[in-house]
Each structure stands twice: as structure tokens, then as C-alpha cells.
Design brief:
The complex is a heterodimer of chains A (about 260) and B (about 280). By secondary structure, chain A is mostly beta strands. Chain A contains three helices and 16 strands. In chain A, the strands form two sheets. In chain A, strands 1, 2, 3, 4, 5, 6, 7, 8, 9, 10 and 11 form an eleven-stranded antiparallel beta sheet that branches. Chain A is globular, with a radius of gyration of 22 Å. In chain A, about 45% of the residues are buried. Helix content of chain B is about 30%, strand content about 25%. In chain B, α2 runs parallel beside α6 and α6 runs antiparallel to α7. In chain B, about 60% of the residues are buried. The chains are: A mainly beta (about 260), B alpha/beta (about 280). At the A-B interface, β4, β6, β10, β11 and β14 of A face β1, β5, β6, β8 and β12 of B.
């Protein structure tokens, strides 16, 4: 449950919120000279949001084997902080989810909004490439999604930013990022055509629709990294009722070993 | 690779079927809702499986049940349950979760498809499969269908769909708080077919979560916290923490990089529906 623990104001005021039993950080305020919040996670939220907020209790979450802290911030929504750096790497703006009514904003306008936000908050954003732009109908809302990702020669790297814009309002409703140092080699020893042939063969699909392969440095649950060719192989059907057969295959770009990483 | 041949009959949704079904259901909702509200325990059911083709969602249901229990529901997790047992629990389910294979109708000459049923593989994994169907037309037409099933890397065999049960239009869905259908195209409608998520939503469920694209789960690997596994873990962790359903869906999809179809989430929500698991309750229209 959401348990407000403290209020941060524009002057750095910290006030215990109703119902708070623990985690209250109280310190005095005096305009312009107020010490910052003691908790670095609160500092990060304050810097990001930039106005008075109520931060819920932090909880641990794990993503790709790496720890994050997450809290609900009143008036905003979910905020997530990288436990290593205290960088805010996710914000869900719940107030911007409200409607799918209204005129659609132009994709270029939404891109401008998304890139401005990402540039403001993601250090080194200018080094990322825009990899995907997509429009996704989520029922409640329609999203214009923009995904930027780091790249070294042909290899896509783990560091990335994804911003979701409500197509009806032009407001950002989701910001999500990753920042990871590259530990794996990024030059493949296996060629793209070799990876594709190995993936199609292993899939066992006779009538395939093939996407990729794309060269990526992937982070594993144990914190290690691998350079892999990722190929998606889909069974094509000519009508009828079927259980979808879509396989995601990884070919190790150094050894050539191929595996089905995931499937539908 | 698996395909189903529904006894040579074309499977096409008749335009008026859903409308007629809704009218019929509406007459029964009051009595069903009354019976459900009288229940002392607010029930939730969570299903996953380790399928014959290597797809593993086997640890998804545990997080669901844990979240439900922390929110005051009587949550229960089932791996490789039969569809018949799920159907038996359905009338009292305030929350329902299925992670795993769906069965889909494909349009001829197109890759467009709609998830019309949930695939259950019982404890005897080498035997046959059952289905909980969305649109009732599929319940009738899929029973006894032949399925050709191929594991990744080959090795195909034929087996029968024992029974396809009508589930999506059960009157009890009118008091369902939350229905999460984590499977391929479970919320993708096509020009001729209505998805299972849409059927449940039209029947009156509070919030229905599905996906418009195919979603992937780990293969021959349990509890990896990747792909569909990772999505389920984060979603139920968030829901148990009191996050709104929509925020939990967005966070869960972000946590897996919006990849492998999991960024194609769909939330269908009826007016007045509960926004989170708290407090434990049914949703009555």
C-alpha cells in the first residue's frame, strides 16, 4: 500500500505526512539555504520533479539482476531509482494517462516533447540513436513510443531511454531508462548470415517469417553480459486456428552456439 | 509449431453472437452477483504451466497468489491445472490470472490473429490439452480439434483438444475485479474475430489486461525473471504493493524493456471499476 512518508517542497521543506510511522526525514527549512533531503533517493526525486512531492516508502525491486529502489510519489506516480547511482531511471506520470479522447498529436511534435525530456534527464542522451518509433493502442490510451539506445559499430548496447507519449494529449506518461557499462566484447566472430541460418534451422519452422538478426550486448540475470545475434522466427499460417509459434533465438556472437531464449 | 484443424469446419465469429450472449448474460448477472457477494471469502485464482514445447511460465502464479493474499483475497496458485478445474473455480473468482499459451484465430492470407482461448495442459503433460474459450462459438468448434505440436527445434506430434469450455462470457465475470490474460494476442481483435479479453470486458469485468501482440516466455528455464516471467513478477509485486492496475502494467512492461511483445499491453476498464487490489472486493456493476 502507498504510505506517504515525507513531503518535499520547493524550498526543501520536509513535513511528516499523515499516517507515517517510519522513514520520516525531518529537517528545518529556510528559503534558499535549506539543506537538501538527507536520503539521496529523495534528493534525486526532488531534482527530477522540481516541486513539492510526497514520497512513499521505498522498496527494493530487481531488474536484470540489478537493484533498484521504487516508490510512489503523490501527484506523479511510480518513481524508480538506480540503487548504484541514485539516478532516476523510471517515472510513470499517472495523471497523464487519463484519456484517449481528443485530437492526435503529430508524431514529430511528440518526438520533440519526448526527446526534450530525455535530454534534460539522461546524461549522455546525445550519444544514443533513435532505434524505434511506434504507435501502440493500449485500449485506455494510445501511445507514441520512442526508444533511443546506445550503439557501438553494429552492436546495440544496454544503455537506453524509452519515452511514452499520450497520443491524445501530447503528454509524456512514461519515462524509462537503463545505464550499464559495457563489459562484453562488441566485435562478433560469427557473421550475420551464419547466425540467421543457425536460428532458422534450430527453430524447426518450415515456413518462417524472420526478423533480424540484430547484434546486441544483453545483460543476464547474474549481472554478466553476452554479445549475441538476436533472431525472431515466426511461423506463418494461412488462416485457421493455431497456437502462435514465435521464437526468440540467441546466437552467441563469439562461439556460434544457438539457443531458443524465449518463445510464445 | 502447432496448428489446430477444427474438424474441417471454418471458424468464423457470427456478428450477432456476442450481442445475443450479452443480453442473455445480463438477465443472469443479478443472481450470480448476489451469490458471489454473499461469499465470505473473496477468491482469486492464478494459473501457469510448464508446457510440452518447453514454454515455462511455471513461477508466475506464485507471485500472483502472494499479492492477492497480502491484499486480503484468498489467492491460490496452480501449475499445470486442467481447464475443468479452473472452470469450477470461476464463479467465485474476483481475480483471475493465466500465464501461458493462448490459442488464436488467423485470418487467411494475413499474419493478423486474435487470441480466442487460453490453453491448459494438465498434470499429464504428454497427454491432451483443454481450453477456456472466449467467444462461446469457439468452445463448441474447438472441442475435439486435432493439434499438431512441435517443440522448438522440431519433434512434432498430433494430439487432441479434449474440451474447449465456454468461459469468456460467464455471468460471474460481471463481478470480476481483475482478469489478467498474459498470452499471445489475448486482446487483439481482428475484423472477423473478437479477442478473449474483449469478450470478458464486454461481459462486465472491472479491469481486463491482455496483449495485442505475441508475448514470449522463457524456454526450458524456470524462474528466470525474464520476458513473460519478469513481467508477471513485477506486475504482481506492484499490484500487491497497492499500485493502480494501469501503473503496474506500465512498470512491468518497462521492467522487461517493452520487448518480446510485452510492450503491447492493453487495459480495458469499465466505469467505476476498482483501480487496485485494495481493498479486496468483487466488482459489481
Amino acid at each position: 500500500m502507498f504510505k506517504p512518508s515525507r513531503i518535499l517542497t520547493g524550498l526543501g521543506l520536509v513535513v511528516a505526512a499523515a499516517g507515517t510511522a517510519s522513514g520520516v526525514h525531518a529537517f528545518a527549512a529556510s528559503g534558499g539555504t535549506t539543506p537538501p533531503p538527507a536520503d539521496p533517493r529523495d534528493q534525486a526525486v526532488f531534482a527530477w520533479v522540481g516541486h513539492g512531492v510526497v514520497v512513499g516508502q521505498w522498496r527494493d525491486v530487481v531488474q536484470h539482476g540489478l537493484h533498484r529502489y521504487q516508490a510512489r510519489v503523490a501527484g506523479v506516480g511510480i518513481v524508480q531509482v538506480d540503487a548504484r547511482s541514485n539516478e532516476v531511471d523510471e517515472v510513470v506520470f499517472e495523471g497523464n494517462l487519463g484519456t484517449r479522447a481528443g485530437q492526435r498529436v503529430a508524431e514529430a511534435t511528440a518526438l520533440g516533447t519526448a526527446s526534450a525530456l530525455a535530454k534534460q534527464h539522461y546524461t549522455g542522451f546525445e550519444l544514443l540513436d533513435l532505434r524505434h518509433t511506434s504507435r501502440v493502442d493500449h485500449g485506455l490510451i494510445s501511445e507514441l513510443r520512442f526508444e533511443w539506445q546506445a550503439r557501438r559499430q553494429d552492436a546495440w548496447l544496454p544503455s537506453r531511454v524509452t519515452v511514452g507519449v499520450n497520443e491524445a494529449t501530447g503528454q509524456v506518461f512514461s519515462y524509462w531508462s537503463e545505464r550499464e557499462a559495457v563489459k562484453a566484447a562488441t566485435v562478433p566472430q560469427v557473421r550475420v548470415d551464419q547466425a540467421r541460418a543457425a536460428a532458422v534451422h534450430l527453430s524447426g519452422i518450415a515456413n518462417p517469417d524472420v526478423t533480424g538478426p540484430f547484434l546486441e550486448v544483453v545483460s543476464l540475470a547474474d549481472g554478466s553480459q553476452r554479445l549475441v545475434w538476436i533472431t525472431e522466427v515466426t511461423q506463418l499460417f494461412n488462416g485457421g486456428v493455431h497456437i502462435p509459434n514465435h521464437q526468440v533465438l540467441w546466437t552467441d556472437a563469439q562461439t556460434g552456439s544457438t539457443e531458443v531464449a524465449a518463445r510464445t | 509449431m502447432r496448428w489446430l484443424k477444427p474438424n474441417g469446419r471454418g471458424v468464423r465469429r457470427q456478428a450477432l453472437t456476442a450481442v445475443v450472449a450479452l443480453v442473455v448474460c445480463a438477465g443472469a448477472v443479478g443472481g450470480q452477483a448476489g451469490a458471489v457477494r454473499a461469499a465470505a471469502v473473496i477468491q482469486g485464482s492464478c494459473y501457469d504451466a510448464y508446457y510440452f514445447d518447453g514454454l515455462s511460465s511455471r513461477y508466475a502464479s506464485g507471485g500472483c497468489a502472494s499479492a492477492l493474499n497480502s491484499a486480503g483475497y484468498a489467492g491460490a496458485a496452480f501449475s499445470n491445472a486442467t481447464a475443468a478445474s479452473a472452470l469450477q473455480r470461476a464463479p467465485l473468482d474476483a481475480v483471475f490470472f493465466h500465464a501461458g499459451h493462448s490459442i488464436d484465430f488467423y485470418q487467411p492470407g494475413s499474419t493478423a490473429h486474435s487470441g480466442v482461448g487460453l490453453v491448459y495442459e494438465g498434470p499429464n503433460s504428454s497427454s491432451d490439452i483443454d481450453i477456456l474459450a472466449g467467444d462461446p462459438i469457439y468452445a463448441a468448434q474447438l472441442t475435439g480439434a486435432e493439434a499438431t505440436i512441435c517443440a522448438a527445434g522440431g519433434g512434432c506430434r498430433t494430439q487432441l483438444v479434449l474440451t474447449s469450455y465456454p468461459w469468456g462470457d460467464l455471468p460471474s465475470h460481471a463481478v470480476s475485479n481483475l482478469v489478467v490474460l498474459e498470452g499471445c494476442a489475448t486482446a487483439q481483435d481482428t475484423t472477423t474475430d473478437v479477442s478473449i479479453a474483449r469478450i470478458v470486458y464486454n461481459t462486465g469485468a472491472g479491469t481486463v489486461v491482455g496483449f495485442s501482440q505475441d508475448v514470449s516466455f522463457p524456454t526450458n528455464a524456470d524462474n528466470t525473471n525474464l520476458y513473460g516471467d519478469g513481467w508477471a513478477n513485477r506486475f504482481w509485486s506492484d499490484a500487491g504493493a497497492g499500485y493502480s492496475y494501469t501503473s503496474a502494467v506500465i512498470d512491468a512492461s518497462n521492467s522487461v524493456g517493452n520487448a518480446y511483445g510485452l510492450g503491447s499491453w492493453v487495459v480495458l476498464q469499465n466505469p467505476g471499476a476498482p483501480q487496485s487490489l485494495y481493498p479486496a472486493k468483487y466488482f459489481a456493476v
